[in-house]
Design goal:
The protein has 13 helices and 16 strands. The chain is an alpha/beta fold and 365 residues long. The protein folds into 2 domains: 130 residues, 3-Layer(aba) Sandwich (Rossmann fold), CATH 3.40.50.720; 199 residues, Dihydrodipicolinate Reductase, domain 2. A 10-stranded mixed beta sheet has the order 14-13-12-11-7-10-9-8-15-16. It has a 6-stranded parallel beta sheet with strand order 3-2-1-4-5-6, sandwiched between helices. The protein binds nicotinamide-adenine-dinucleotide. The site of nicotinamide-adenine-dinucleotide has 25 residues, from helix 1.
């Protein structure tokens, strides 16, 4: 597999973003096929490869039956992830899948069984794990320089105008607006928290490097009238070490300054955003700023795919493994329960098992 042959299923927004990221990893990989229910979209994506022919298909099964592939890259709406992963695993392909892993824990159990049976490599497309400021922050925390972590905040919020315009980017050709399926809770598997909130959740877990054991949450719809679900969530998470995490995620507002995370620890604190990372040990008069990082979101996708190639071609351990993605799902679904039932939900060790609301008496202890 010196040159990985890849088929992308879902030729929409992320299909284009991933396709550019694959190209920047040439010659280690090449996209040889693309699939989508919309022929206009497969044509539009295939036409971006002006140096060679890329085969087009109406669906994943037809693509797998016809094209010679080593790996499948899943860029579909959320409700289609499970079937696509199962189909690709049964065909023995390596799998990169956009977030979320799937929308139910029963599906996660089925996916785990299929991956174990087929031995297929699986990686979740958690691109923001490859944001340089987060990589540096995790390195600093792992070095022990800040001591024990007490508090971690992870923020992923932007005022989302896409719903009101229903805008379909011209490069996609025709087809359904990405906002239409996002406004449908059945296809979405929830609302903003399982979509954009997914990034803040895996970032929180990455910074904590620990197992979440409890979550509680409040959610509301403040601004995006097209939704019947939440457009905003605030989650509080307790980790096994005792550290407390906070997730703020929203399509209703853009936060000041673009900070993505903050950690308060025994010997000092740090804060990071797209381009910045600062830290301040106790007693220092000012924070120290690391070199500014470029504002380069596409590079996070390119690095994610470089890592996927390292996993397949060099045996690296996937940073966004099945377990890591299942843990994000377990926490997210438990947060929905906590918000609906006004309670704290405890999280079992097996990430495919659902959380259980904690009785009020147990909470008081
Ligand atoms: N990592 C990120 O920052 C990021 C950003 C946006 C979206 N995403 C994720 O990427 C995935 C896709 O989102 P998107 O915004 O690209 O959506 P999109 O609507 O732009 O693209 C989805 C594509 O799937 C196609 N499709 C639907 N049913 C199909 C089927 N049965 N077979 C083949 N094709 C089918 C649609 O025609 C569409 O072209 C989602 O999981 C989303 O959460 C991730």
């Amino acid at each position: 597999m010196d040159r990985l042959k890849v088929g992308i299923v879902g030729s929409g927004w992320m299909g284009h973003v991933h396709s550019r990221a694959w190209r920047s990893n040439a010659p280690r990989a090449e996209v040889v096929a693309v699939a989508d229910v919309s022929p206009e979209r497969t044509r539009a994506l295939a036409s971006t490869f002006d140096d060679r022919e890329v085969a087009t298909y109406p669906d994943l099964a037809t693509m797998l039956a016809d094209a010679e592939l080593d790996a499948v890259d899943i860029c579909l709406p959320h409700h289609l992830h499970t079937d696509a992963i199962l189909t690709a695993a049964r065909a023995g392909k390596a799998i990169l899948c956009e977030k979320p892993l799937c929308t139910t824990l029963d599906d996660a159990v089925a996916i785990r069984a299929a991956l174990q049976e087929s031995g297929s490599t699986f990686m979740a497309a958690h691109n923001q794990l490859f944001q340089p400021s987060l990589i540096e922050a995790r390195r600093l925390l792992a070095s022990g320089a800040l001591g024990r972590t007490f508090i971690i905040r992870s923020i992923e919020a932007v005022q989302n105008r896409g719903f009101s315009t229903g805008h379909v980017p011209r490069e996609l050709g025709g087809g359904e607006s990405p906002w239409t399926w996002r406004a449908d809770p059945q296809r979405m598997g929830g609302g903003e928290v399982i979509d954009t909130g997914w990034h803040s959740t895996y970032r929180l877990l990455a910074l904590a490097d620990d197992r979440p054991v409890e979550v509680t949450a409040m959610m509301d719809r403040f601004a995006v009238k097209q939704l019947t679900t939440e457009d905003t969530g605030l989650l509080l998470v307790r980790f096994a070490s005792g550290a407390i995490g906070e997730i703020i995620t929203s399509w209703a507002f853009s936060p000041v300054g673009g900070w993505h995370f903050e950690v308060g620890a025994e010997h000092g604190s740090l804060a990071g955003g797209k381009t910045r990372l600062v830290h301040q040990l106790h007693g220092w008069p000012e924070p120290v700023e690391f070199t500014k990082f470029p504002d380069d979101l596409p590079q996070t996708f390119a690095s994610e795919i470089t890592h996927f190639l390292d996993v397949i071609q060099h045996g690296a351990a996937p940073q966004a493994s099945f377990d890591h993605a299942a843990r994000v799902l377990q926490l997210t679904l438990a947060a929905y329960t906590a918000a609906a039932e006004h309670c704290v939900v405890s999280l079992p060790e097996d990430p495919t098992q659902p959380g259980a609301p904690v009785a009020a008496a147990a909470m008081a202890r």
